[in-house]
Design goal:
single chain, mainly alpha, Growth Hormone, Chain: A, about 0% strand
Length: about 375
């Protein structure tokens, strides 16, 4: 099978994961109304998903090296679709929370397996570009998810977006079943020491920093739609279209990482620049009395900064962890989602009770801590190199 077809199928699969996760940024109000709760409580539908993803990702990262990855991908697509359909008939908010946790487990199986399949089939010299193609699928999901969710919710009801993404997963399953070949699992010729990387500061510093800034940036984005709705009185559909500006910026950042990295010369320099830009964009969006156009510009810059920071940080972690990169990158996914789990409900509560300034304090503390840890890491590396 040509690798190009494989990449397009995997991009389609992760597209629906991204769309399902991020479409909730436009749906907090209608979900709150459907389950007779507040928007702050509705944000737990995101946090519960993040919790189960954080717990399950390292497990499935380990299992994907010891199973038929094609089968694991297909099963996770079906489970993700079933979860979306079941959520639309959830009898209570508690049941919806449980189903979102189940969806997080399915997603945790799907994402690492998709990227492992790329590394199995695509030659090493082309893997970076291939990973980028699949990652763009996720980015387009982030862009399109809120837009379609808002439009479908306005046209029908809150269940329609979940019906659409579940149907898409089933279509992706049918196509993938026909064209993705079975691949034997690969086991390393040399067994690395288990968890030896934990005591290496050159890995743990950027690992924890990434968990903080990535999780906080995503948590803030998931609240951005509610901020725009409260500030400008937008409908659900208009919110969905508006927050897609973040996804546009994210795509530009993903596509621009090559030129920016060449300009900055080192990944750690690129990361510091991206984090500074991220903090500026988030702070301006949350605190400045901007018109809608200004808010959208901030969202584009917000996404652009994150689109630069994520691949730069991933490259750093993969290079430094060497033989342990599978474990390290899986733990990185878990830390990202743990940060969402902690930051999102606190920031959502502050937004509801005290407004955007209080929510920004929560986001700002976490972002500032991640930047400080990143700067400490750069300092340690310079001292070791001198």
């Amino acid at each position: 099978m040509p690798s190009r077809i494989l990449l397009h199928i995997l991009a389609l699969a992760v597209f629906f994961v991204g769309a399902t996760e991020f479409m909730l940024s436009a749906m907090l109000a209608p979900l709150a109304q459907a389950f007779d709760i507040t928007p702050a409580h509705a944000s737990w539908l995101v946090s519960s998903y993040a919790l189960s993803y954080a717990i399950a990702a390292p497990i499935f990262g380990f299992l994907s090296d010891r199973m038929d990855r094609r089968r694991l991908l297909l099963v996770s697509l079906v489970l993700f679709a079933v979860d979306g359909l079941a959520l639309t008939i959830a009898p209570s908010f508690g049941a919806a929370i449980a189903l979102r946790m189940f969806g997080g487990v399915a997603s945790a199986a799907l994402i690492p397996t998709a990227f492992a399949l790329v590394s199995d089939i695509v030659p090493a010299r082309r893997q970076s570009a291939a990973m980028g193609v699949v990652m763009i699928g996720m980015t387009f999901g982030i862009v399109a998810g809120p837009v379609f969710a808002g439009i479908l919710t306005d046209a029908f009801d809150w269940r329609a977006p979940f019906h659409a993404t579940a149907t898409g997963c089933l279509v992706a399953f049918i196509i993938a079943q026909r064209v993705i070949p079975s691949q034997p699992s690969r086991r390393p010729a040399k067994k690395p020491k288990r968890l030896a990387w934990i005591v290496r500061g050159s890995i743990t510093r950027p690992l924890f920093a990434k968990g903080l800034w990535n999780g906080t940036a995503v948590a803030g984005f998931l609240l951005a739609g509610e901020v725009l709705r409260l500030r400008h009185g937008l409908s659900v559909g208009a919110v969905g279209v508006s927050v897609s500006a973040f996804g546009l910026g994210l795509a530009i950042g993903n596509l621009g990482i090559g030129p920016v990295s060449r300009l900055c010369r080192k990944d750690d320099v690129t990361l510091v620049v991206a984090l500074a830009l991220l903090i500026l964009a988030v702070s301006t969006f949350m605190l400045a009395p901007l018109p809608l156009t200004g808010g959208l510009v901030c969202l584009v810059i917000w996404g652009f900064a994150l689109g630069l920071a994520a691949p730069a940080s991933t490259s750093m972690l993969a290079t430094r962890s060497d033989a342990d990169k599978g474990q390290v990158l899986a733990v990185s996914e878990s830390l990202n989602n743990l940060a969402i789990l902690v930051v999102l409900p606190i920031a959502a509560t502050q937004l509801e009770v005290a407004g955007t300034a209080s929510a920004m304090i929560v986001l700002g503390i976490s972002l500032a801590a991640s930047l400080a840890l990143t700067m400490v890491d750069r300092r340690f590396l310079r001292l070791q190199g001198s």
